[in-house]
Amino acid sequence: MKQIGKVGTVCPECLRSIEGIKFVEDGKVYIKKECAEHGAFTTLISKDINHYLKMEECFDVDRARVKAPLTDVNKGCPHDCGICPSHKQDTCLAVVEVTDRCDLGCKYCFADSTADASSDPDMDTIRGMFEAVKACSNDPTCVQISGGEPTLRNDLPEIIKLAKEVGISHVELNTNGRRIARDQDYLDSIKEAGVDAIYLGFDGVSDDVYMQRTGKKLFDIKAKVIERCEKAGIGVVLVPLVAKNYNLHEVGKIIEFASKHVPTVRGVHFQPVFYSGRSPAEMEGRTTILELLEEIQSQTSGQLKVENFTPSLMPTAHCGATCLTLVDDSGFIPLTNVSMGAIKSKSDVANKTKKSIMGRWKGSTPDLQPVTKPSCCDLLTKTALSNASKTEGTSSCCEDPKNTIPLETIPMESSCCRSSGGWADFIEMSMNKYLTISTMAFQDVWSFEKERVENCCIHVVTQDGKLIPFCNYNLSNCNGDFLYRSKNNKENKTIGIEK
Ligand code: SF4
Ligand code: SF4
Ligand SMILES: [Zn+2]
Questions:
Q1: What is the mean pLDDT of the chain?
Q2: pLDDT range class, residue 236, cuts 50, 70, 90
Q3: pLDDT digits 0-9 by tens, 430-468
Q4: Which residues form the signal peptide (predicted)?
Q5: Is the separation of the CB atoms in 19 and 485 below 8 Å?
Q6: Potential cystine with 102: which of 149, 175, 177, 359 (Cβ 3.0-4.6 Å)?
């Protein structure tokens, strides 16, 4: 056993702040911690120290703090959320939950599907939640309207309009898609209200998967949503919750399905299941980022390799991984690779992520594209790629508006313009045939690292106008008691337990 660092963490029983260590044994990385009252706990956080360190090598981003903290430093992280003045990262995405109700009783979920409409926040409360985002976070602001299932609210179009009225720049909708699939008028009304993107729960391409989680055949419904969004010009991000013994065997098919629906489908964002209010025995399905990436490599026949996934522009190297790829008739042309070295973020990570959300995941209609049209290098937010060409004595093609730099002078592996037809083809392909494949490693009470949450840029807004980093918001002890979520909804103590 070799210790590689210290870690601020919490006791899985009492949630008290305690110190722990990170250590390596048999090439695997673990966190070990000990509470004076509840004993020692050891958790695997990566099965490969080499991959773990590689991700750290590839991570080098600037940070910016929120505009105005909303709480004081009192008990110490993670017990002062709100955002408190110690928090080191601005908001990139604020999650506003507008209902706890849901029309599916999913096996893995945070929402309390038994809640009734009387528990929904009213419009004044929701206005206060949007205003809290504006007060705390720097512009531009991105909000994800979430739940429960937000489309159970008939006044969702008014909520979206309200967000825009308050000055939220980008509004995406997190949905299971059932209402959109059956109600064209409803989709028309949320589009008219100004929704910018749909974040669609999409766990697989077979009904077997949906039957296992929900007891319902949902694949045709998901396909219908994409068809309708294509006609409406609304961008869609597919969001599979991933677990072993559930849908890990379908990740390749999900990516293949997505690739056939670009540019309407802008990305696939895999969310490995994590412990939140569940008993540890139910966490056998949990998968690490590396295990997911290995499955993607295997199930895409090596077209997308583990090394094509670089650290996401997120708080730390271990919060997520992203691959940006072009899609053509022959398959995938991945644009990112850890061999490019450290990400050189030109601006702070929250700002960069907001641009990414607003640019890459927005709608696909031609009239939307000029607003969001990225340069070749913007598409490659891992700008190590263009930096590489500079250090080798060439300029990035993106710095030359007329593209007079001969492509052959740019090394193939570091060129932004890798398509055989050069600049014009590349831009055409980039605009219409790119796909972002990403994943986020949410933390739980076992894997919890203070350094990650104090740098977190995804913040859940509470009904009393606080912003709580997502992993803290969903943090529960091993008895299912939440640190924050249950304070927002006191009845919601059993969130995540199979219904
Ligand atoms: S996670 Fe951030 S806001 Fe919450 S207590 Fe820690 S530093 Fe403060
Ligand atoms: S939500 Fe959790 S995993 Fe995601 S960025 Fe925040 S701390 Fe990292
Ligand atoms: Zn304890």
A1: 82
A2: very high
A3: 567 889 999 998 898 999 999 999 999 999 999 999 999
A4: none
A5: no
A6: 149
Its domain, for residue 249, covers: 93-363+434-440
59, 447, 458, 459: which to mutate for ligand 2, most atoms within 8 A of CB? 458
Query: Which residues touch 108 (CB under 8 Å, ≥6 apart)?
Result: 213, 241, 243, 273, 496
pLDDT interval class at 245 (50, 70, 90) = confident
Residue 492 inside a domain? The answer is no
Pair 344, 402 in one domain: no
Whether residue 125 is contained in a domain is answered as: yes
Q: Which residue has the higher pLDDT, 316 or 200?
A: 200
> Is 247 a member of any domain?
yes
Whole-number Å distance, alpha carbon 193 to ligand 1 midpoint, is: 34
Q: Are 327 and 262 in contact (CB under 8 A)?
A: yes
Alpha-carbon separation of residue 3 from 24, 32, 319 (angstroms): 6, 10, 21
Peptide bond into 140 cis (omega under 30): yes
Give 206 or 421, the one with higher predicted confidence. Answer: 206
Ligand 3 centroid – CA 135 distance (Å): 35
Quote the CA–CA distance of 437 and 227 in Å, as a whole number. 20
Which pLDDT does position 359 carry in this prediction? 61
Cα(34) to centroid(ligand 3), Å? 8
Which residue do the tokens 């956080």 mark? 45
Same domain, 129 and 275: yes
Q: How far is CA 18 from CA 85, 332, 472, in A?
A: 21, 45, 15
Q: Which two tokens stand for residue 393?
A: 């004595």
Model confidence pLDDT, tens digit, residues 20-59? 999 999 999 999 999 999 999 999 899 999 999 999 988 8
The structure tokens 């919750």 sit at 241
Check pocket membership of 454 for ligand 1, CB cut-off 6 A: yes
* Amino acid letter for position 28: K
Indicate which residue's Cα is closest to atom 6 of ligand 2.
Answer: 456
Angle CA(193)–CA(133)–CA(379) in degrees, nearest 5?
A: 70
How far is residue 200's CA from residue 220's CA, in Å, rounded to a whole number?
13
The domain total for the chain is 2
Q: How many residues does the chain have?
A: 499
Residue from 243, 245, 241 nearest 199 by CA: 241
Q: 126 pLDDT exceeds 90?
A: yes
The pair of structure tokens assigned to 470 is: 């997502």
Instruction: Give the pair of three-digit tokens for residue 428.
Output: 């055409």
Let me know whether 126 and 206 are in one domain.
yes
The model's confidence at residue 363, banded by pLDDT at 50, 70 and 90, is low
**Span 209-220, pLDDT tens digits:** 999 888 889 999
Ligand 1 pocket member 463 (CB < 6 A): no
**Structure tokens of 430?**
């980039």
Report the C-alpha gap between 428 and 426 in whole angstroms. Answer: 5
